DNA sequence: GGCTATAGTTCTAAAATAGAACTGTCAAAC
DNA sequence: GTTTGACAGTTCTATTTTAGAACTATAGCC
């Protein structure tokens, strides 16, 4: 497998995996959604090596998920802020958090609780069909080849 | 970071990442949801090395995401089938697919289209609040430390 | 007996990651 | 005006993972 061209595969999962499909990237994104923005803050809360953190941040900026924004001119210092493309990864992160809550919990209870500001309640994220609003289950979904697949396969 | 104890961290994302947080595992799960079940089938559709495929399948079985079920007695042959715990990863996979559709598309159009059998329409997955049913956005969510975090932190 | 199918295991080379030390800029403290 | 400390990285070597190919094992079929 050539990971360097994975983002061009005719498969949206492959393309997403090419960008966020490794441990550190997902953990960095968690921190982003927890409002962490600075190099030192990522490093100390994740205990990631500085080398890898630097690499991963560059990659996230390259793919347009984070923006590198100066917050100090002298010395030049930057922070990393989620773009809209990055914010749109929220369902991915929340789906993983919810699966962890459901299947990887221990006797201590949930690590984090999520409150929905607009309704004021603690909630779980639920994935529904955009058309009928029903909860989605794998067995109720039928997959068709779309135009992008047909063109690629021939 | 000690990846071998990541599944015990007081963070549901870490725990999920410990299990499915690498490229190959996510791609293998995609195949599972496309009804692939056998070693050779995974290997030829993913072009993964046999060694890694073997490792990843063992790990997914160990974590209860796949079951190794015999389908032939002589010679002994097994296939790998999603458990309920595995099926529950559907929102994670679909969230990634949808993000890829939205942000990593090219001029060829979507690789795959999803049809919801119960309503008969082509759909996108949408993440909503379990309490009020509204679409979730990162900025409308407030995070609290839960019991599992408080106990771990002290 | 030889060929094929399936599900692996074993081996070496290449790539990625860990861990620690080092660089450079500037502010504030002494 | 020299030292200290904060911040955001880069560079280096050692270890771990992954890639790629070859090999093993069981059994059916010709």
UniProtKB/TrEMBL annotation, chains A, B:
A Gene Ontology molecular function term of the record: DNA binding
Keyword flag Transcription regulation: yes
UniProt keywords, alphabetically: DNA-binding, Transcription, Transcription regulation
Pfam families (UniProt xref): HxlR
UniProt keyword Metal-binding, yes or no: no
PROSITE patterns listed in its UniProt record: HTH_HXLR (PS51118)
InterPro entries reported for this sequence: HTH_HxlR, WH-like_DNA-bd_sf, WH_DNA-bd_sf
All residue ranges annotated as the HTH hxlR-type domain in the record: 11-108
PANTHER family documented for this protein: TRANSCRIPTIONAL REGULATOR, MARR FAMILY (PTHR33204), TRANSCRIPTIONAL REGULATORY PROTEIN (PTHR33204:SF36)
Protein name: HxlR family transcriptional regulator
């Amino acid at each position: 497998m050539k990971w360097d061209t994975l983002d061009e595969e005719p498969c949206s999962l492959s393309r997403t995996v090419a960008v966020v499909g490794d441990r550190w990237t997902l953990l960095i994104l968690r921190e982003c959604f927890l409002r962490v923005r600075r190099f030192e803050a990522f490093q100390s809360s994740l205990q990631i090596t500085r080398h890898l953190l630097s690499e991963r941040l560059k990659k996230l900026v390259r793919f347009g998920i984070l923006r590198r924004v100066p917050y100090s001119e002298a010395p030049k210092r930057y922070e990393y802020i989620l773009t809209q493309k990055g914010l749109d990864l929220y369902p991915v992160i929340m789906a993983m958090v919810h699966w962890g809550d459901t299947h990887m919990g221990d006797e201590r209870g949930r690590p984090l609780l999520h409150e929905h500001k607009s309704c004021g309640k603690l909630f779980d994220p639920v994935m529904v069909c955009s058309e009928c609003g029903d909860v989605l289950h794998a067995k109720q979904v039928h997959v068709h080849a779309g135009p992008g697949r047909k063109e690629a396969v021939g």
